[in-house]
Amino acid sequence: MNFFRRSVTSSHMILILPAAVLLLLAEIASFASAQQSIYELANQTEALSTLKAAIDAAGLADALSGNGTFTVFAPTNEAFGKIDSATMDKLLKPEWSHHLEDVLFYHVLPSVVTSSDLVDGSVVTLNEESITINATALNINNSSGIVADSVDIQASNGVVHLIDSVLLPTSVTSNIVEVASTKPHLTTLVELVVAAELAETLSAAGPFTVFAPNDAAFAALPAAELEDLKKAENKDMLANVLQYHVVRRNRYLEDFTASHYHLDTLNGEEIHIDVGAHDDHRKLAEDDHGHDEDEVTVNGAHIIRTFYGNNGVIHVVDKVLEDDHSHSSGASSMKMFIGATLALLGASIML
């Protein structure tokens, strides 16, 4: 069938297309202008149904539906099937939603990278951990293969490459003690946890939330007190101090919605959470993913960073925690805890 009729006028040629062909071209143009978002693509692709469920559970549907220039390494259903069911079931629970978000962000780059742009080397993902790409072998972290015939899937807010294994960040592979051990600003805390023989406790299933004083917080304490607590004979006192910085369950910043909270710590005493209670109006980039949150303080200490382990949450704080009595009297938290511990043991000491 001849779809074209020619009309020659002067030196011009006009192609006259049948109405059916014009309609088809219009539909193609309409589809191109209404290209699916990454979330819509996952929602309408059967092989990505588990990924779509994970996106929903993590509350990221809007983020992956809006504007953006993302590259997503998208695990297939079979990829998720390789994860042990207990881990997957845990991550899909609401109380582990930020851990799941962290896993998904580990699969996302902030800019569009097509398959032809892939090069050997490391690149930082949205969860601020690096993945290692082998462009020749088409794999990531030497484990997850990029599906060769399923790359460069275009979306309105980026590009998608299918992969055959889920990428696992430290929030899945490491407990909170192991995560803290990798942070250069938490070296003193890790040293004290080991000295107090609490590493095994804090490596258990939990979950726990640790309000972790950074090295600068410990450096602000009188050096003699800190050295005394490191002594073997004061191990129980040190454990009591550290347990005051730990609560049970995952406590994400978004959980603190009221102005004031009281939480029981592992040593039986309460800590006090205040939300937006201070006048300096400092803002916190929580999750390390740029979510702007109201300031959150714990007994007056500011939360300045958050990390995740497979058994809980680490909120880095800028002070060693003191209770209200020690804070108001000017006594250091170390002296307060030494006195409290010895009192519990039926002893007395002149502080």
Shape: elongated
Which structural class matches the secondary elements?
Answer: alpha+beta
Provide the residue-averaged pLDDT: 82
Show unreliable segments.
1-17, 20-34, 277-293, 325-331, 340-351
Biggest pleated-sheet summary: 7 strands, mixed
Strand order of the largest sheet: 12-11-19-18-17-14-13
Q: Radius of gyration in whole Å, from Cα? A: 27 Å
Q: What helical percentage do the residues reach?
A: 25-40%
Number of β-strand runs: 19
Cα-to-Cα separation, first versus last residue: 102 Å
**Beta-strand share of residues:** 15-25%
Quick gist of this model?
The chain is 31% helix and 24% strand.
Fold topology:
Blueprint: E1 5-9, E2 12-16, H1 19-33, H2 38-43, H3 49-58, E3 70-75, H4 77-81, H5 85-91, H6 97-105, E4 108-109, E5 121-124, E6 130-134, E7 139-140, E8 144-145, E9 153-155, E10 158-163, H7 170-173, H8 176-181, H9 187-195, E11 208-213, H10 215-219, H11 223-229, H12 235-243, E12 246-248, E13 260-264, E14 270-275, E15 284-286, E16 291-293, E17 296-298, E18 301-309, E19 312-317, H13 324-329, H14 333-344
Parallel strand pairs: 3-10, 11-19
Antiparallel strand pairs: 1-2, 3-4, 5-6, 6-7, 7-8, 9-10, 11-12, 13-14, 14-17, 15-16, 17-18, 18-19
Helix pairs in contact: 3-6, 12-14
Task: Please tell me about this protein's structure.
By secondary structure, this protein is α+β, with helices and mostly antiparallel strands. Helices cover 31% and strands 24% of the residues. It has 14 helices and 19 strands. The protein has a seven-stranded mixed β-sheet with strand order 12-11-19-18-17-14-13. A four-stranded mixed β-sheet has the order 4-3-10-9. The chain has a four-stranded antiparallel β-sheet with strand order 5-6-7-8, with no helix packed on it. Helix 3 packs across helix 6 (97-105) and helix 12 packs across helix 14. 36% of the residues are buried. Mean pLDDT is 82; it is low at 1-17, 20-34, 277-293, 325-331 and 340-351.
